[in-house]
């Protein structure tokens, strides 16, 4: 087995007026060494909750069950102190908004040094050399100046690079990137995604790339997991998914891709249900053109449609 991360039957419940409800339910996947797995879905589908559960940063009221194996360790069974060592150590993370993730009153250097020394007991000189090397790794041209800078001196793209350097300080096996480019303008987005690809190749780490943008998935992922309302709708290799999308939701997302030949976006009618009002049966049924009474009554299991291609749908498209 090549999996660095093995998630099984992950269930994350949140309190509602009607009692706890599963915002993420029955999610399972593996992440192989050196692989980029995309998680895609509209806003509110449970992508971030899934990511946060991997690093023990769920909202306080949330409860997670199932299994999250990092090598031999079940992360859900760990105590907070042990999880803290893994977070920023074997698992690194970058988030959507690099400004809020950085401390505004500390220099980039101080924050990077703190991350380095938390995970490797280096003397100051060696830690400083490592900090400069990490900044060069994320293609920051003048590391010495960057170390002395405060976050507000940096552009959004530079901040995201600095955060990546911090995330890489513990030499992680897995990097979780939750909408890492959503807050950036298009040119900078492309540069950051290129950097992420290069780093994956240079360092051999696995990447979990979370996005609502199928365009980002197409150019940057090996495999993709499509999430809808806390359930997995479809998992496939990227090529197979784009060539033969089997779940009506995946097709809908593809219809929502802006295309040069299209006059405007074709969108899926309706919205993702809130946690407090999850429909019975297939959660996508109320928005699905193929839904019938079975869909509205029974939750479809995730089943193989082709090798390495799983779909949770009673009436999937042919693959
Ligand atoms: N702290 C919280 N308290 C209550 N509900 C929450 C909390 N965090 C998330 N939720 C709910 O859980 C569901 C999944 O949220 P999550 O943030 O995982 O979605 P997402 O797929 O990351 O969306 P986005 O694309 O907007 O980031 C949503 O319905 C959201 O409203
Ligand atoms: Mg999110």
Judged by helices, strands and strand pairing, the structural class is alpha/beta
**How many beta-strand elements?**
12
Bound molecules: adenosine-5'-triphosphate, magnesium ion
CATH topology-level name of the domain at 3-78 and 175-180 and 206-311: Rossmann fold
Kindly state the percentage of residues in helix: 25-40%
Number of helices: 12
Question: In this structure, how is the largest beta sheet organized?
Answer: 8 strands, mixed
Percent in strands: 15-25%
Order of helices and strands: EEEHEEHEHHHHHEHEHEEHHHEE
Spatial ordering of strands, largest sheet: 6-7-8-3-9-10-12-11
CATH homologous superfamily descriptor of the domain at 3-78 and 175-180 and 206-311: P-loop containing nucleotide triphosphate hydrolases
- What is the typical, i.e. mean, pLDDT? 92
The rounded Rg comes to: 20 Å
Separation, N- and C-terminal Cα atoms: 27 Å
CATH architecture of the domain at 3-78 and 175-180 and 206-311: 3-Layer(aba) Sandwich
Give a written overview of the molecule.
- The mean pLDDT is 92.
- The protein is of the alpha/beta class and 319 residues long.
- Strand 4 and strand 5 form a beta hairpin.
- 34% of the residues lie in helices and 24% in strands.
- The radius of gyration is 20 Å and the shape is globular.
- The chain has helices spanning 47-54, 80-86, 98-101, 108-119, 124-137, 143-148, 156-168, 186-203, 214-220, 238-243, 248-255, 293-297, and strands at residues 3-16, 19-32, 36-40, 63-70, 73-74, 91-94, 174-178, 206-211, 223-228, 231-237, 303-306, 309-311.
- It has a domain at 3-78 and 175-180 and 206-311: 3-Layer(aba) Sandwich (Rossmann fold).
- It has twelve helices and twelve strands.
- The structure holds adenosine-5'-triphosphate (ATP) and magnesium ion.
